[in-house]
Amino acid sequence: MRRPESHFHNHPGVRSGIFYFLIILCLLQGVKWVFSRGFPPWQVSEPKTESPLFQARLDSLRTALNTEKPWTLQPLDPNDLEDYRGYVLGIPFNALDSLYSFRSKGGRLLGMDQFKKITGLEDSTCQRLTPFFRFPKYNAPDAPSGNTFSRDLNTATADQLQSIRGIGPVLSKRIVRFREALGGFRIASQIEDVYGLSPETARRVITAFPLRSIPSLERIDLNRASAEELSRILYLNHKMARDIVDFRNRIGAYVHLDQLNHVESLPADKIDRIALYLRL
Fold this sequence. Notes:
With 280 residues, this protein is mostly helical.
């Protein structure tokens, strides 16, 4: 029986094809190996060496920076306080959130005591922040000649209030009724609590009619008052008044008015208003 001959015997074309195939296969394997180890070295650019002129300029800037006076934060209006400046001042996130919530409802900060109550920050923190804050001041404009009435927020009539842009008959009467329900404004910012009055219009009212007179008021004893007595305060409903009394029964007598911040049903942006009508 004859032994079968090789298929490649006397076939030079086939042998050449196999040879080239093996070469291509080796090249492909080499390319795969190179890319598996990163880009080829000829594609990696060497770090540029800066010119001596550039390096000298850089060194001079660094020297000037080190010799300049230290950077200081200029006083700012906390009503315009934003995240970045708050972080620079070291104000905690939760305090900033409380401040933003107060401002989103039309609240306006007029002093450091109000800022402390809204944010819940410690006295030491507020003392540290005081030099960096500049609260707005509402100064009364000079009265025009021929002005025949006293510009006082607690005595202005509904007709007089209508002289302010943005206030018509409805809003002016609402302001007077709200003032009567309070027994008179204790602080000028209380006018911001009038329903339907925009913050911009409220600021115009305070500017035109500054708070010149504050009526006398018998404050309610926080540690002795009943829920019924507390509910007479305009800013409190019956549930809030009961919660204040329940909290007092659990912890004992209130030591300071800031403890009202722990009564969950009380709105944080109104505690400063409520405290105006209480005493210990």
